[in-house]
RNA sequence: GCCCUCGUAGCUCAGGGGAUAGAGCACAGGAUUCCUAAUCCUGGUGCCGCAGGUUCGAUUCCUGCCGAGGGCACCA
């Protein structure tokens, strides 16, 4: 089974990042690489890269150092020497590097690296100076990414599931941008097809009802109350103008009114949720421009389309899908898939380096056929990454709220927003990997206490602001610069833990971008806030010792900045006070 | 039936070829003369679904099975 479903994130060269200010891990990696090359060339081998299976990881145990490398273990066979011996040679070279306080060979041949505390401390001022840009990098090398998400049909208000997709997409956009990608966010409006007529007809029938007419409202029509609300608006605006008109003669009006109304509501919801788009792309354009026919024709010329039982079929099986797909039905109507092929082709021709689609998990069966289309059109299937977002179950007071779109009983994004607020909603949506189920606990999201992770993080930021404000009033650092600060005074375990975690941010952003996983930022934030709260409980920032106060204020200032940067990637606010 | 995703602490979930598998919640106890107690500290539980395989090493990768969810339209 080849990987036409997405799986892991992007493939990116991560060897050449000299444009970026290196974080500690990168510096260690480079030292390791140099040592390894020195070792191999001494043996007569030339230009050996670090093995692909090499890992520079963060050990779980502190006694195993800040970083541990398995380099000696994975290169033992190709060098023909025992792992521990290789490790010892590498360790000896590394010991000369002031970056390391200690280098140890352990277990079967791990190289445990202990970064010199002095380096961590010097690093702090560097992070501070990067300010709002700390965490950004050039890993994306300006690759243009088109991020398509939400794309809900304009047939009803957004529900919580869309909300999750919106949060993931918007946050991912921010993260990719920070990692050096050029991002465009797009909403694809499915404003063509049968559903539009059904929508208009639903409103028409409700309109009739408002005048006391008995109507037979089919159960496959849109049931929600919002349909009646639209009908009421029409009554206010046009009174009984359509009352005695047959539906066929005024359906277009009802469709247009409904779509306009619902679309405006969707935009408003997204706006209030802090989610914006660069493009609102109407499916109508795909139809009206003749792009679908053109795409079918070209595929046909390449022999990927055939006719059977009066319908036109795309030979998807030739490109890894399990069955061929109809693009034009025997009644002459184009399928949704045909439009989607054309739409993706349109995207591909707009010349992006990467397309990312964020879909509800119920569409996962759709991935192979769209990828098949992309391949048939002559593009690499890697060009498209599809992120599947699992459903959200809402919990309140320990009970699950039932939802069913069919019956019109769904909880809307609006309701959640009104109830828990933008920040809590966004954070909750981003605390899980997008393809795993999410239990959204409304009761928890509304709590203003430590059990609510949103407040936990925001509170850390507010606390820091308060400290810095106090310092300002005491006139301790009027220039807002830390020239001459003596960071050697940051010598406790809490200091080092915080310093290390601050440094890790850039790496987290990069990995989060490459893996297309915004939730990593949430975890990072929770951890950083935890380290700070712990620090706060054990140390005073402002004290009698002016030098120490100065150093700790630098730490506070930097921590606050990183919290703000990270929260910004989630689209969650960083309040100055709470 | 076929395909996809998932199975980790009481609950919700991270992690992931590497050394003793984590967090939050829940539960219990404690901490405030002092920068925001929306905080902190202390308590412990895991056949990492089951069975094989790959290798120096598997909870992680592969295969099969069991269980949960989703998908398999000339629907959108």
Instruction: Record the strand order, biggest sheet.
Output: 7-6-5-11-12
- General form: globular
CATH topology of the domain at 449-570: Isoleucyl-tRNA Synthetase, Domain 1
- What is the H level of CATH, i.e. the homologous superfamily of the domain at 449-570? Isoleucyl-tRNA Synthetase, Domain 1
> Quick one: biggest sheet?
5 strands, parallel
Number of discrete helical segments: 19
CATH architecture label of the domain at 449-570:
Orthogonal Bundle
Cα Rg: 29 Å
Structural commentary:
This protein is of the alpha/beta class and 578 residues long. Among the domains are: 24-115, Arginyl tRNA synthetase N-terminal domain (Gyrase A, domain 2), CATH 3.30.1360.70; 449-570, Isoleucyl-tRNA Synthetase, Domain 1 (Orthogonal Bundle), CATH 1.10.730. Helix content is 49%, strand content 12%. It contains 19 helices and 15 strands. It has helices at residues 24-42, 71-79, 83-94, 117-130, 160-178, 194-210, 225-238, 247-272, 283-288, 291-301, 336-349, 367-376, 413-420, 422-429, 442-446, 453-473, 493-515, 519-538, 546-570; strands at 56-57, 67-69, 100-106, 110-115, 144-148, 182-189, 279-282, 305-308, 311-314, 325-328, 354-360, 384-389, 392-396, 399-401, 438-441. The protein has a 5-stranded parallel β-sheet with strand order 7-6-5-11-12, with helices on both faces. A 4-stranded antiparallel β-sheet has the order 1-2-4-3. Helix 5 (160-178) links the parallel strand 5 and strand 6. Helix 6 (194-210) crosses helix 7 (225-238). The longest helix is centred in the middle third of the chain and has 26 residues, at 247-272. The protein is globular and about 90 Å long. It starts with 23 loop residues before the first helix and ends in an 8-residue tail after the last helix. The model is unreliable at 1-8 and 12-18 (pLDDT under 50).
């Amino acid at each position: 089974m080849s990987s036409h479903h997405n799986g892991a994130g992007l493939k990116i060269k991560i060897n050449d990042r000299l444009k970026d200010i290196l974080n500690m891990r990168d510096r260690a990696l480079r030292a390791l690489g140099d040592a390894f090359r020195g070792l191999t060339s001494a043996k007569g081998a030339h230009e050996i890269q670090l093995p692909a299976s090499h890992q520079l990881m963060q050990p779980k145990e502190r006694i195993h150092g800040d970083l541990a490398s398995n380099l000696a273990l994975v290169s033992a066979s190709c060098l023909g020497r025992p792992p521990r011996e290789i490790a010892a040679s590498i360790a000896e070279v590394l010991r000369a590097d002031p970056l390391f306080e200690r280098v140890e060979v352990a277990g079967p041949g791990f190289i445990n690296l202990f970064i010199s505390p002095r380096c961590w401390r010097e690093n702090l001022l560097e992070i501070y100076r990067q300010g709002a840009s700390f965490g950004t990098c050039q890993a994306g090398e300006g690759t243009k990414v088109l991020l398509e998400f939400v794309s809900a049909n304009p047939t009803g208000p957004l529900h919580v599931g869309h909300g999750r997709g919106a949060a993931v997409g918007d946050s991912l956009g921010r993260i990719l941008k920070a990692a050096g990608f050029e991002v465009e966010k797009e909403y694809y409006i499915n404003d063509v097809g049968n559903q539009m007529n059904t929508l208009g007809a639903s409103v028409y029938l409700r309109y009739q009802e408002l005048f006391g007419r008995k109507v037979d409202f089919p159960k496959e029509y849109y049931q929600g109350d919002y349909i009646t609300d639209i009908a009421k608006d029409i009554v206010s605006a046009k009174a009984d103008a359509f009352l005695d008109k047959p539906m066929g003669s005024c359906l277009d009006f009802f469709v247009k009114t409904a779509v306009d109304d619902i679309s405006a509501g969707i935009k408003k919801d997204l706006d209030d949720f802090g989610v914006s788009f660069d493009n609102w792309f109407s499916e109508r354009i795909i139809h009206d421009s003749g792009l679908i026919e053109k795409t079918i024709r070209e595929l046909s010329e390449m022999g990927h389309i055939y006719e059977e039982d009066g319908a036109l079929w795309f030979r998807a099986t030739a490109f890894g899908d399990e069955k061929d797909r109809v693009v034009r039905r025997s009644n002459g109507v184009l399928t949704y898939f045909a439009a989607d092929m054309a739409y993706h082709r349109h995207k591909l021709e707009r010349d992006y380096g990467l397309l990312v689609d964020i879909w509800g998990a119920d569409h996962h069966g759709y991935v192979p056929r769209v990828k098949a289309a992309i391949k048939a059109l002559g593009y690499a299937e890697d060009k498209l990454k599809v992120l599947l977002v699992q459903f959200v179950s809402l919990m309140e007071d320990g009970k699950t709220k039932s939802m069913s779109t069919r019956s019109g009983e769904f909880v809307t994004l609006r309701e959640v927003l009104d109830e828990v607020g933008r920040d809590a909603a966004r954070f909750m949506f981003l605390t899980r990997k997008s393809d795993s189920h999410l239990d959204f606990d409304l009761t928890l999201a509304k709590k203003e206490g430590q059990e609510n992770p949103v407040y936990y993080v925001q509170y850390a930021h507010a606390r820091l602001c308060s400290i810095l404000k106090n310092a300002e009033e005491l006139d301790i650092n009027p220039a807002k610069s830390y020239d001459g600060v003596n960071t050697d005074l940051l010598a406790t375990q809490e200091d080092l833990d915080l310093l290390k975690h601050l440094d890790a941010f850039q790496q987290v952003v990069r990995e989060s971008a490459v893996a297309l996983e915004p939730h990593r930022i949430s975890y990072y934030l929770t951890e950083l806030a935890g380290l700070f709260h712990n620090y706060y409980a054990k140390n005073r920032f402002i004290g009698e010792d002016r030098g120490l106060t100065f150093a700790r204020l630098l730490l506070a200032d930097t921590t606050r900045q990183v919290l703000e940067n990270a929260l910004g990637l989630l689209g969650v606010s960083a309040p100055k006070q709470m």
